[in-house]
Write a structure and sequence with these properties.
Blueprint lengths: L8 H18 L13 H4 L7 E14 L2 E8 L2 E8 H4 L1 H10 L5 E10 L5 E12 L15 H6 L1 H7 L1 H23 L3 E2 L5 E2 L10 E5 L4 E5 L4 H10 L3 E9 L11 E10 L3 H20 L3 E4 L2 E4 L4 E4 H9 L9 H10 L5 H4 L5 H12 L8 E7 L15 E9 L2 E8 L4 H16 L10 H8 L5 E7 H8 L16
Parallel strand pairs: 3-5, 6-10, 14-15
Antiparallel strand pairs: 1-2, 1-4, 2-3, 4-5, 7-9, 8-9, 10-11, 11-18, 12-13, 15-16, 16-17, 17-18
Length: 488
């Protein structure tokens, strides 16, 4: 049994009896409000003698006859409080001692002072029991270690572990920095549908759900891309969305089926504009959260003061000894890779299209070896059906990815706004799907209709929030940086 759930019947009975004692005295056990004057953090800025009314969860109690010391907690920290039988009166002092347990919420009235040991403390002149905890805090309160419990009952992990508390607060600060950066640069935050009739915007297997009122199946979005581009067509020059995407694929340390994605689109930009703008944002986030561009991630020193540029097509051509822009035949490509001893036939068997095979090779032979920040650009056009074809060579697309420690953090490109080329690209994806590639795009007639009404030049970008933040926070898995990760 996980450590936090081990609660004896006697302990539950005792806490229930204490709740009844509180009800008998106060009339209500779980109060409706408390008028605090300061948060714990704000109280730390006050001078000795300042009157305060503070509230929080009791995390420690130490009884010394006629005097006790305890601590209360909120998300920004803890503060010590003291009670004396003389100041509170015999009855109130004994009632607190007999009926308040670790984990209960209390409101304290008193004044601040420093003990002889120099610790800021609230000298309590009155208290109110605000809520009774029927379950105890974990035995190992200062450092909950059971991994299952930490993920499944994140609230206990946050209470118990300062590192988790700091990580989650840092994540929320990062989201605020991103919003401020985009708002300050003329972007508008918009919302697009989670349930969509077409699975498109990324190469991924979708989740399917049924809409009872419409008696129709919908997909949970794998990306908001097509709707965000339509807002650009509507006249919004710069838009972004911070929200959840869903991809029904494998789970590992760097992949989850439900994840947070930042996407933005800017009219009249190309991918090079996006590269400069996004890199400036990455550096701003690091400076505000870590105070430096040189950070350590899982023992590896990373320098975000610079990045390397890597030509995708050139690197893959060098690896394979052929021009990957000319690949058309999936079985022939598989045979070539097997004959070269790069992969076994069994490894490649699930891959049904040229894009899927090329992506597989890149991820395992190139991307996994990229450690320091790198902007990878110049991809084959068949890899991204929504990206703009290069004007000088239509076999290539104007795209870049920011890759760090073998993980894709950012993907951005000049958007395809030519409806004729877009329809042909969708039809090619449909052929790949018919051949068995379940990550291929569906054809979206509504999106094509919007494109046929006209779109300006656009560049868009997607940034995986969870993955990016895991590197900033030096967290080994995505679950460590998500407030409530999916659990079986």
């Amino acid at each position: 049994m996980p450590e936090n759930t081990a609660m004896s019947t006697n302990e539950l009975t005792a806490r229930l009896q204490k709740a009844e004692n509180i009800r008998a005295r106060d009339g209500v056990v779980w109060k409706d409000k408390f008028d605090r004057t300061h948060t714990i953090c704000a109280a730390r800025d006050l001078a000795d003698g300042a009157p305060v009314k503070l509230a929080g969860r009791v995390t420690a109690q130490r009884w010394l006859g006629k005097l006790m010391f305890g601590r209360i907690y909120d998300i920004d920290g803890e503060i010590q409080f003291s009670m004396s039988r003389e100041e509170l009166g015999e009855e109130n002092y004994k009632f607190f001692k007999s009926n308040v347990d670790l984990g209960d919420f209390v409101g304290l009235t008193g004044e601040l002072y420093h003990t002889t040991a120099g610790e800021l403390t609230v000298r309590v002149t009155g208290y109110e029991i605000l809520a009774k905890a029927l379950r105890p805090l974990p035995e190992k309160f200062h450092g909950l270690t059971d991994v299952e419990t930490r993920y499944r009952q994140r609230y206990l992990d946050i209470i118990s572990n300062e590192d988790t508390r700091r990580t989650m607060k840092m994540r929320f600060k990062m989201l605020r920095i991103i919003r401020d950066y985009l708002n300050d640069n003329g972007f508008v935050e918009v919302e697009t549908p989670i349930m969509q009739t077409v699975a498109s915007g990324a190469a991924a297997r979708p989740f399917v759900t049924h809409h009872n009122a419409l008696d129709a199946d919908f997909y949970l979005r794998i990306a908001p891309e097509l709707f965000l581009k339509q807002t650009i067509a509507a006249g919004f020059d710069r838009v972004f969305e911070l929200g959840k995407n869903f991809r029904n694929e494998g789970m590992d340390a760097m992949h989850l089926q439900e994840f947070t994605m930042l996407e933005w689109y800017a009219a009249y930009w190309n991918y090079r504009d996006n590269m400069a703008f996004s890199w400036a944002m990455v550096q701003k986030i690091l400076m505000e959260l870590r105070g430096t561009l040189q950070i350590e991630y899982q023992g590896t020193q990373l320098d975000f003061s610079k990045y390397e540029e890597i030509d995708y097509t050139a690197r893959m051509n060098e690896l394979l000894g052929v021009d990957i822009l000319e690949f058309r035949d999936a079985p022939a490509l598989k045979k070539q890779l097997v004959d070269a001893g790069m992969f076994s036939a069994a490894e490649l068997d699930p891959l049904k299209s040229v894009p899927a095979i090329v992506d597989y090779v890149f991820k395992r032979k190139v991307r996994d070896q990229i450690v320091h920040p790198a902007m990878v650009y110049n991809y084959p056009a068949y890899m991204i059906p929504l990206a703009r074809r290069n004007d000088a060579d239509g076999r290539r697309i104007d795209i870049f990815q920011l890759i760090v420690c073998g993980a894709e953090l950012i993907k951005a490109y000049s958007e395809l706004v030519d409806p004729i080329v877009q329809r042909a690209a969708f039809e090619e994806q449909m052929a790949n799907k018919a051949a068995g590639d379940d990550e291929a795009f569906d054809l979206d007639e509504d999106f094509l209709r919007a494109m046929e009404h006209g779109m300006p030049p656009i560049s868009g970008l997607g940034l995986g929030i969870d993955r990016f933040f895991s590197i900033i926070a030096d967290a080994p898995t995505l679950r460590d940086v998500i407030l409530f990760p999916i659990m079986k």
